[in-house]
Amino acid sequence: MKSFFSYTALFMVLALSIFSCKKDDNDAASTGTPVVKYIRITDPRAGDSLVVGAFMGGLIAIVGENLQNTRELWFNDQKANLSPTYITNKTILVNVPSTVPSIVTNKMRFVFADGSELLHDFSVNVPAPTLTGIKCEYVPAGGIVELVGDFFFEPKVFFTDNVAAELVSITKTKLEVRVPAGAKPGPITIQTNFGKVKSRFFFRDNRNIILDYDSKLHETWTAPVTAASADPLVTGCDGSYAMFKHKANGAWQWTNELTMQYWATRGRGRVPVATGSINDLTLKFECNVPIEWKDVRMEMFFGPYADDHGRDAAGTAIARWKPWKEGPFKTNGWVTISIPLTEFKYGKDDSDTDEIGTRKIENLSNLTNVVFMLFGPANGANPVQIAIDNIRIVQN
């Protein structure tokens, strides 16, 4: 923290030296009408750095004459924080306020010690919203969707077919909205006065569903299917779900209740789990962990068309999901998990400490089976309860 502020102060001093003039710039005897000649960004490496607007929070240098008596500086209806250290006769260094204006005048207003004022044309650029994530893609009508991004200034939120959502909670980087009746699968759009963005993810993503535990099922002798609301700790996400549950899970335990195997020979037939490049695809599913998951990784892999899990098949590439790596993992309800197919990079005999891996998925067209299983090293024997729904592979 100390080095950050030291660097910032140094940068501002250097910028001040670049844009200010002689040592008499702050001479109190300087008189005359205040004038703004131009405004520059403060990076001396920039070429054409004269500006007529800047983004919120940006550091600018105001260059003119007779500016030393500036006491207040307003951008639209937002007051900037001024430091006397960075005010001279000919230069003011200031950060554009980071608060969105309520009244937009596209003016910079100077207030001087004698009460006089000066207006100068200057626009504050407010970025369009960005949308980077969603807590859970599957939420019923009337439920709350949590969206993450930035620049959520007086937003409006729309589901597919322009169905508007009720806003429940708003911050600059997080939105909570109530899912409207009739909301359909598809992208979510956020619109503000400064632009709009459409999500890359789909709400209730129904693309390439491999397992949904309602009509698309796995082998019955593995993790049992649980009906919605049948478990007191897990309410349903989207109908029934698979439940990985056992009173204790130790190292390298191959336990039926803690494995989920889908064999395409008994399912939808010789249909690849996905098509396309692994660089462009992500495995997604909804997950609910009501008690702390402390150790034993979940392995995930795809197998060839056969009555077999495929873990021992030549070239099988395994993903190791360890959300507890930084501490016990527990969700607050259902969340959507995303694992890029490029993370399927471990061979079954790779070291437990290997973070690089020796495999990758070579040919998706040959892979039809899906396996999730808790299997690996452990520090003890801990209870496990992990609910999973809607396994799918979709575009990034």
Task: Tell me what the structure shows.
With 396 residues, the protein is mostly beta strands. It has three domains: 2-125, Immunoglobulins (Immunoglobulin-like), CATH 2.60.40.10; 130-198, Immunoglobulin-like (Sandwich); 209-395, Jelly Rolls. Helices cover 5% and strands 37% of the residues. The chain has one helix and 27 strands. It has one helix at residues 2-19; strands at residues 35-41, 53-55, 59-65, 70-75, 78-79, 91-95, 107-112, 117-121, 123-125, 130-134, 144-150, 156-159, 163-164, 166-170, 174-178, 189-192, 195-198, 209-211, 225-226, 241-249, 259-262, 281-288, 298-304, 318-321, 335-340, 367-374, 382-395. Strands 18, 19, 20, 22, 25 and 27 form a six-stranded antiparallel sheet that branches. A four-stranded antiparallel sheet has the order 5-4-7-8, with no helix packed on it. A four-stranded antiparallel sheet has the order 10-11-15-14, with no helix packed on it. A hairpin with a 2-residue loop joins β16 and β17 (195-198). The two termini are 36 Å apart. The relative contact order is 0.12. It comes from Haliscomenobacter hydrossis (strain ATCC 27775 / DSM 1100 / LMG 10767 / O). One of its GO terms (molecular function) is polysaccharide binding.
